[in-house]
Every structure is written in C-alpha cells, then in structure tokens.
Target: hydroxymethylglutaryl-CoA lyase
Amino acid sequence: LDSRRVKVVEVGPRDGLQNEKAVISTDVKVELIERLVKGGLRCVESGSFVSPKWVPQMASTADVLQSSRLSALRSTHKDLSLPVLVPNIKGLDSLLALPPNLTDEIAVFVSASEGFSRANLNCSVAESLSRLEPVFRTARDRGLKVRGYVSVVLGCPFDGRVEPQQVAHVAKALRDLGAYEVSLGDTIGVGVPRGWDEVVGACEQQGVPARQLAAHCHDTYGTALASILHCVSQLGIRTVDSSIAALGGCPYSPGATGNVATEDVLYALSASEIPTTVLAFDELCQVGEWISAELGRENGSRVGKAMKGR
Ligand code: HMG
Ligand code: MG
Model:
C-alpha cells in the first residue's frame, strides 16, 4: 500500500444526521449506510448510543445496526467497519446487550475545553476521561477497537481560544487509555493550516505521532479543505473524517455548519494526486444528491453540485 494513502472516515450517518430535527426513518439511515458502502467507503460511523433526551435522532441506532441489510453488507465486505459513538459505560452496555458482531469499533469523545465538556457531556474534562476508563477496559475485553475524538481543538464556542497543549494532553490521555487513533475535531470549523500546525505539533511533542491522528473538520468558515490538504501534505496525517453532502453540525456547538463534504475531500485529494482508500467517486456524488433530496436540503457539497451540472 502507498504509505501516502489517505483513509476517509465517513461520519454522515452519525455526525451528519444527529442534528436533524425531523425524525429520519431507520430505513433511510440504513439505506444511506448501504449506499455509502456501495460507493466505496469502508469506515462508516453509523450512529451513537447517547442519551435519547439529549440527541433524539440517534435513538434508533440499535435498530440501524441490527438491520438485515447491514448484516448482508457485513458479510459481503469483510473489511467494513461501522463504528458507533458511546459517551459512557451505559452507552457501551447498550451496544453489548445487542447480538454480537454488529460492529468491531466504538468511538469515544472528550472535549479539549471545559466549557464544551459541560455542554456536550455534562462533566469536566478530567471527569470525562476517568469515566472512560471502564469503557476502554470493557471494549478491550470484548475485542472492540476504540477511536478517540477530541472536540473543539481549534476553538471553543464557550471558552474561545483553546491551548494546543490542552489538546495534546487530552489526545495523549486517550491514546494512553487505548485509543488506536485520535481524531482531532474542529467542532466549530474555525481552523486554518497555521492552527493545525500548532495542534499537531503539540500532539507530536507529547508523543502522539501524526500517523495516529485524524483531521475532523467542520466547514463553518470555509477553511476545512485548506486545513485538510495541509494536514495531509505537510503534517503527515493519514486519516480524514468527512460527511456526505456536508451533512451535519453539532447540537452543542451553536452556529456550526456541517462537516466538510466527503465528495469535496475526495476531489481535492485526487486532484492533488494523493491516493485515498475510496474509488467510486461518481457513485458517492449520487449518494450526496439522494440524501439531500431525502432530507429536503440543498446539497452542501460544492463538488456534488458541480458534478450534477455536468
Ligand atoms: P447526564 O444527564 O449527565 O447523564 O448526561 P446521567 O448519567 O446523569 O443520566 C441522565 C439520563 O440519561 C438518565 O436517564 C440516563 O439513563 C440517561 P433518566 O434516568 O433521566 O431517564 N443516559 C443514557 N441514555 C442512553 N444512552 C446513554 C446514556 N447515558 C445516560 N449512553 C450524557 C450525560 C453523556 C449521557 C449526555 O450528556 C449525552 O448523551 N451527551 C451526548 C452528547 C452528544 O451525543 N453529542 C454529539 C456527539 S459529539 C460530537 O458531535 C463531536 C464530534 O463529532 C467531534 C467534533 O466535531 O468535535 C465527535
Ligand atoms: Mg463533529
């Protein structure tokens, strides 16, 4: 494998949909995952086991995972990963109460700032890290891989500037707990290449190399692609999170728009001759058109719109 190859983690069915007000049927969620996988994506974050009072849209995650259509996908694609987000041991217990082998991976999330930690997890950063200890332990016992997210790495809607050292501290804590990869979330989409230099540099100084990091950009200020190209071509990051049709926005991040669009990331990487793990670009553009129509939204992907006009 080309060591420059970039892995794309699709977060649309989770990060993209969690903020939608209207109830989206389990069928549509399953069909979205199915289409994304048929479009060549092999890591598709498929839901979260969080409090349904806090994030009602994700309440159907157990149904989504248990759908027979996803079982069929799992048996066809042995390399498929359908991670789900869990905030605490209760979330992991809900997953483990289901039949086995619905997923091989969970994702946990910690904030780099105190303000966002309160809003998103209702506890301090230190408390959230200690609450994750049993989650990591149980996941290890059950053979589940754990991906860690750090939120608000380039700015917090409540606390403002976030120190790169604080991001690095949380990233290292997650790695030391057992996360195989730490995804750095620019939750409010304010990042630019210079900020990523500082954050990734601070993580590396703490002993978390760029190869264990992922860039998770929201595109609120239109700088996500600039940041991603910089992270990949200059900083050695090899995993990028994105969302089909730029769906999304975090419920606890006022004003944040969607994640950077998967189609836009794939176009920018391929036009820069940076290989990715995804091949079926045209199909994915159609998936973006389809889900935008299902949700009654304009397609948030620039590339998706351009491809439609061709
Ligand atoms: P809390 O209220 O402090 O928790 O919420 P609690 O332990 O006091 O429990 C309160 C109630 O929630 C109880 O129910 C629990 O049973 C229930 P009640 O007795 O009132 O009926 N509960 C749960 N129910 C289902 N699943 C669970 C669970 N845990 C407790 N796992 C809690 C704490 C973490 C649960 C809450 O704050 C929560 O669910 N937060 C989720 C927030 C969320 O999903 N945010 C979006 C995802 S993160 C994100 O988008 C950022 C990311 O994309 C990266 C980036 O962009 O930066 C990853
Ligand atoms: Mg996010």
Remarks:
- The chain is about 45% helix and 10% strand.
- The first helix runs from residue 12 to 16.
